[in-house]
Amino acid sequence: MEINRNILVSGELQNKAFRAAAILLCLFLITMFAFNSCKPDPEPLKPTISLVFDSGMTQDGDTVAIGSPLNFKIVVSGPESNITNFTVKKVYGDVTKTVMDSGLNSSGFVLNKTFYQSVEDDVTWTFAVQDRNRNTAEVTMKIYKDPDSQFGGILEYPSVTLGYQQNTTTGHFFFPSTGEIHFQDTATLFQELTDILVYFNYREDNGVELPSPTFSSPGEEVSANTELYTEYYPFLVDWTTRNYTKYDIRADNGISAEDFANAHNDSLLIVSYDDVWGKKKYKWANAGLIIPFQTAAGKKGIIKVLNADAAETGTITFSVKIQM
């Protein structure tokens, strides 16, 4: 009987030990499950942006003359989430100026972009991206103005008259580098010189259809499928060179008629054009308006509208000043 009792006691001890081990195992598993379930999800990979300093690209720390090109090559990648915004900013002193702000939806891109040296002594250029998860990345470089820079000469045309699309007596295309006005035949022969054209239509403004004398260029749309190409000047579709002129569309650019009249070098032209406002055309270009612009070759200019007819057979007359 004593032996049987010892066996029973030993069995009970083993059962208790087993139960204790089982309880400890359960507690361990519960703890591990709770720990793993509480662990935060891994952070998404952030976008990347870098500058490539190939030959011909502007280098960090370069000293550049006023009006000279600044060539940047930017490489962007969104390894986990698409890029939704790309900005370029200039920081000088206490001023931060956005010169490009572009919305997009891309997994990445390589961009060659040209800006032009302005009058600031030194500028920190900041290139930044944001992805769909609102993660950001940026890269910066500093550029110095050449202290020996001189303002350049300009071409001045006191009165230029162009015809709208249905005008058969006055040319529609302007070569600002030469001051010449041409119809289709000559403009087609000298596509690389054709920077400005005009047309007329009606455009809606705050729900009201208004007559719209319009400044544009052969490169108004890359796809070449707007009314410029389908109705007004369809032969542009066949051009191999379609220069794209950008017009600063700000309602108030700060240029007075007196400023325009007194501009005899390119200082006013350089500081007046704001690239972030540069768009493919200028609508409602009525008499009295002053319009900064930049050609495909990077030449900055200013137009002052003198008179604008309100019919597609009419003309628009303007003064223009442009960098040589």
Average pLDDT, all residues: 90
Helicity, as a percent range: 10-25%
Instruction: Please provide the ordered H/E string of secondary-structure elements.
Output: HEEEEEEEEEEEHEEHEHHEEEE
Distance between the termini: 120 Å
Shape: elongated
Q: Could you tell me the radius of gyration in angstroms?
A: 33 Å
Strand arrangement, major sheet: 9-18-17-16-14-15
Beta-sheet strand percentage?
35-45%
Stretches where pLDDT is under 50 for at least 5 consecutive residues are none
What quaternary form is this? Answer: single chain
Q: How many strands in all?
A: 18
Walk me through this protein's architecture.
The chain has helices spanning 2-38, 184-189, 227-232, 257-261, 267-272, and strands at 48-51, 63-64, 69-77, 83-92, 95-106, 108-116, 122-131, 136-145, 154-163, 173-175, 180-182, 196-205, 208-216, 246-248, 278-279, 290-294, 300-308, 315-323. With 324 residues, the protein is of the alpha+beta class. The strands form four sheets. Strands 9-18-17-16-14-15 form a six-stranded antiparallel β-sheet. Strand 16 (290-294) and strand 17 (300-308) form a beta hairpin. The longest helix is centred in the N-terminal third of the chain and has 37 residues, at 2-38. It is elongated, with a radius of gyration of 33 Å. The mean pLDDT is 90.
